Amino acid sequence: MNTSNNNYASSPATTPESSIDEEKFLVPYQISSKFKKKWFRLANTPFGILAVSFLQVIVHIFSTQNIQKSLRFEPDKKIELWRFFTYMLVHDDWYHLMLNVVIQCIFAVLLEKRQGHLRVLILYFLGGFTGVLGAACVHPDLVIGASAGVYALLISNVSDIILNYTTVNYKIYRATSIGILVLFDIIYNIVHVYLKKQPLISWEAHFVGGVAGLLLGLTIYKGSDKYQATANRTLFWISVIAYAVIVICCVILTLQIQKCTPPLHYKYVYFC
Fold first, then answer.
1. What is this entry's stated membrane topology (predicted)?
2. Which of 10, 106, 180, 192 suits a disulfide with 2, CB 3.0-4.6 Å?
């Protein structure tokens, strides 16, 4: 079997004098490397959430009790603003830590690939901030754990689907996996409360973090479909206003609670 100058293999049915029109129906013997799919691409690695997860593991291993006390959220120390974010670094045990780390890394892979590392990190921490702010309105107690940020990441997948509905792949699978995880968490929380186990789960942080993730996703994430530009712009402004209203109401309510109640004596540590 001979090969022509155009990188096509000549079969017995053709001769070296065959025309280009005849040869283009034959199979090329060499495929350019740029068309080969790589099983791993460095650009798809969720460096943002991986860095946060690594820091959470380091804090869990090496932090002392005093360090954890300075990082966790305490309602009567709202002036120490870092606590609204650093509480996400502290976890109750290895099961609590690894559950949050695994889920946030799984969902960050696709989100950071599509939306970028910075957008996903901003959403993650703002979701954690809003979640603990909402929890302080219902149960003003100690809070640790990153589940508010994890829920923000989880539900922000819905925002990504909405903003890119005609172009995003695997919509049904992504929506189904989100629904299953949320349903499982609701059942787990109900059983946990029914059995009166401690530490208690801050379902308020989960819920408010999820709502924040939806609104922040519609605000921060980008849409790639030009035919949805008008609808996406409308969703952007609705989400900005709704998120601002939620944060302002939570701030006013927590300040009012602090003003009208005596000094708090903590009974529980709520983890999320």
1. Multi-pass membrane protein
2. 10
